[in-house]
Amino acid sequence: MIASRITTTHLLALGVAIMVIIVSAEFSAEFQVNFAVPHPQPSQSGFSELIWIRDHFGYDNQHIIIVVRDPSSYLWALAYDGGLVYFGNVLYLLANQTDYSLLNSPDPQIRSDYIGSWQRLWVYGVLQRINSGTYRIILPSDLYKPDVLEMQSLIAVGEGLLQTRTMDSVNISRLLEAWNLAKTTHDFIGASSPYLKIYPLADCGAYSSWASTNAATSVRLAQNFTNVSTCSVHIATREPKGATTYVTLNGTWDLASIAYFGFYFKGKANSTSFHLLNVLLSSAADYSSYYYYEAMDESLWSGSVNGVVLDLSQFQTKGFPDLSSISSIRFGTYSIDNTSFDYSLQYLMTATES
Amino acid sequence: MGRALIRSSQISRALRSVYTRRLLLIVVVAALGLEIVGLAEGFAASLGYPVSGAYPNIPSQFVAIASVAFPILPYVSLVMLAGALIFGVIDSARSKSETVPDSAQREETPTKFREYVLLAIAVSIAAFLVWLPRSLQSLPIGGDTLFYISVIDTMNREGPLWAVIYTDKPFFYLTVYGMQQLSQLSTLDFFDVLPVILAIGTTISAWFFVDSFYKTAAGYTALLTATSTSLMRTSIDLYASFFATILLFLTLGIYLRYRDRARVRLILLLQLMLVLSLVSYWFVWGLLLVVLGVAEAMSRDRTKRIRSFLMIALPSIGVLGLFVAFALTHPPPSYWGLGSSFALYLGKAVTPSGTVTYSSATVDLADLGSLQYNPVLPILAVVGLYFHRPKNFPVMTLYIWSSVMLAFSLISTTGLHAALLIPLPVLGGLGLRRIVEMR
Description:
- The structure holds two protein chains of two kinds.
- Chain A has helices at about 1-5, 10-35, 45-55, 70-80, 90-95, 100-105, 110-125, 140-145, 150, 170-185, 190, 205, and strands at about 65-70, 85, 135-140, 155-160, 160-165, 195-200, 210, 215-225, 230-240, 245-255, 260-270, 275-280, 290-295, 305-310, 315-320, 325-335, 340-354.
- By secondary structure, chain A is of the alpha+beta class.
- Chain B has 19 helices and two strands.
- In chain B, strands 1-2 form a two-stranded antiparallel ribbon.
- Residues about 95-105 of chain B have low confidence and may be disordered.
- The interface between A and B is large, with 52 and 74 residues.
């Protein structure tokens, strides 16, 4: 009876059904392995800072406000430290002002994270008491990467953490104003000059010593493009994909007591793919030991003048470099595609807190 | 459209020929066989066990060629599904003279044991597939998981009432919080287990829904739900959607049973389910009201039916009214719960600086990407729609549900959640059942 009901067509159809389920399961298994992964994590040191906060201040400590400003760090901070996490720029938090640059950000994730974190502080009544001393405002430095002006409101408390210092509202407003000016004009050197002691690193006589490390890069002394000094150096290079080309200035510098390294920069990159500017400070002639910083900020290459100030503590190291005997400074450009770079450097400087 | 209908009837006639049907099935078996082996080879390679050689290379090449179509698959699926829905509605309207009972399709004697076996297999597959990535990773999976962890930890500190005052999904959070308390697991460990529980729940509830009107398709639906990439995507970090999907299937399943046999306890249960849906994910509650309301409006005895439906819906509408009234008397930041959450779907948020726009709705096809990864399911769904016209209440609900979600999946603010709510596994289950019925 049963055998008479089973036909070849029916067997084939049953086979199709079984195979469809197997194919679906395979697609799903592949999907799971490829897409069911953890959210992009912060750097290992940034992650360690979050865990350190949890281990030392406790999970969900209602007297700690953690400040981060990228969406990934925000979610990890929420999950691993709980409590009060502010997504945004620390000076706006201290001034208890609305940060319209985030509120109107073209990135919906940034808008949403800023609003979410802001609402939470509002619910807990934090905003009205932000400078009352009730809260310790902590910044994991590797996640937040504060700039020179923000550093004026911060002190290091160890383990890569920074904490806001006690400041009156006038000083906070002044600092916020300077920060907004720097953001608008891209001139952090000019905006931070009231807060720093600035030391030019080389005079125009030394600029003629800039040399390139390969023949495809031209280096020449050029006219100034800002008023702070009388000359600049102009670099033009065309480099193959994946390569880095450098220009070098040799000398002798003791940067042991220095907090910041800066320069004016104006450049354009003929590239739509990922590219960056490298800054190397070497204490070994063969570059076996050096400090380096990778400036990935795309706006650097807009063609406008940028006054860049880099925190030396944010430089990474290779080998065992020594800040007290820096003998060579290099600027390098890198791109994952064939790219031509055209840029000028002026007024290399170092600075300490005033 | 008339020409399309004629062509489709020609295809139908051709398929009625045994030899054509067998030939087609053999081609499909061969293609699926190559796809199965090729995908398995790719999967083995991604786990670090590559398979090499001339003959093993053939299935991989087949998969690679088939994958070329993947980027356009969402759009093809959209057109296929929309086309099948329109075709079904028009064809149904043309053949109005047919007398089809406005009730569930119970055309076969159910083989209960076989259905339970299929359900058990489906549940095991769902649990395994959702657990698989969690066994390979040490950190929590998915971005929103980190957010959910912080919510549950906040409830651990502030107490469960926090979810009622500050979230628009209080019942969902209370349930998750309660489960975490019962499990005695740390929050991080609990979020490894939760998606597995929800995947099992979704598979069972999909089975329960289809079992209420087409018993012999319920097992296939469960299997396709368990192996669907929409379940996989939801399991990554969309736990509230997951939970709401379970409530949606259960409510629809209960409603269809109530329609077959109206009993007081079913009415009370439905009223409760709608309230729970509202306080778990009001978007899904709205979907339930629209789907059931419109389907009832198109049924026979519509006046009586709509009156009964309103009786079921009224308590949840009343609860919503209470939440809104409370929100009006307690504006943010003192209350930020369900009653004040509706503007969120319009991209508005209340801040200390007043109400701001944080996102604007646009027409966006990006979220149809969830239809991209498994081409088999949309094809089966179209087969399901082709063989089931909206001539009775259960299939009518499926047509309305699919159309509404297809439309919402094209709007940026609701896109992903709506795309994942398109009942592809259900339609696919009906389609697969029809294929297996071939003699």
